[in-house]
Design goal:
8 helices; 52% helix; Four Helix Bundle (Hemerythrin (Met), subunit A); 208 residues
């Protein structure tokens, strides 16, 4: 089911919020690029839900093993465990888990980091009222989070892995706060736009 195909008006409302987004790092889509691409946004499919659950299962295992904690799913407390896992990835021979198999590859490493991105996305979704969707644009088809009221969208799955590939350390809490600030700004602009479009009606006096 197609949720929407955002047009220029939708993205113009989000311009202030999206201007601070980092291109290519999954934190958000600049309004200008969103208007140009005009992607198709659809509800997450059962198959994609299963894939997300596989990512979550892996992170739960990693968190128990290396962070000594449980992943609650959507809780701000999960950010602490995710940070421990991210830091471990940057200091331990390019991998999180103690695999004995020599077949463990960079691709496996990226999968683990993307799994961390999924769980970070769950926190963003629950705390900031976003929903998982599928976005199909000129760059391909991928999982994202959508703020339905404003059209703001973010790509948490690659937030951590893209930074890792570029040699950038990920501060998980800072990433969350950056998205939260963008969502709040987009929502504020959306509300202002609605007030400009539908100004309050004046109440007629009693005639006295």
């Amino acid at each position: 089911m197609i949720l929407r195909k955002p047009g220029a008006k939708t993205h113009a409302r989000c311009r202030a919020a999206l201007a601070c987004a980092f291109i290519g790092l999954g934190v958000g889509v600049p309004a200008e690029a969103a208007e140009r691409d005009s992607p198709e946004i659809t509800r997450i499919t059962p198959e994609e839900l299963r894939r997300l659950d596989q990512h979550r299962s892996l992170v739960k295992t990693l968190a128990r093993r290396y962070a000594g904690s449980q992943i609650a799913g959507g809780s701000l407390q999960d950010l602490r465990a995710l940070q421990i896992l991210v830091d471990r990835a940057g200091t331990r021979d390019r991998r999180l888990m103690d695999f004995a198999e020599p077949s463990f590859s960079d691709r496996d490493q990226i999968y683990e980091l993307q799994s961390i991105g999924v769980v970070l996305g769950d926190v963003i979704a629950k705390q900031l009222s976003l929903v998982w969707v599928i976005i199909d644009d000129e760059y391909g088809r991928g999982r994202a989070l959508l703020h339905e009221a404003t059209g703001y969208r973010v790509f948490p799955v690659t937030m951590v892995s893209k930074r890792y590939e570029k040699g950038i350390r990920s501060d998980v809490h800072a990433l969350y706060e950056q998205v939260a600030e963008s969502v709040r700004a987009a929502d504020a602009e959306h509300r202002r736009s609605k007030r400009r479009t539908n100004p309050p009606r004046r109440v007629s006096g009693s005639g006295k």
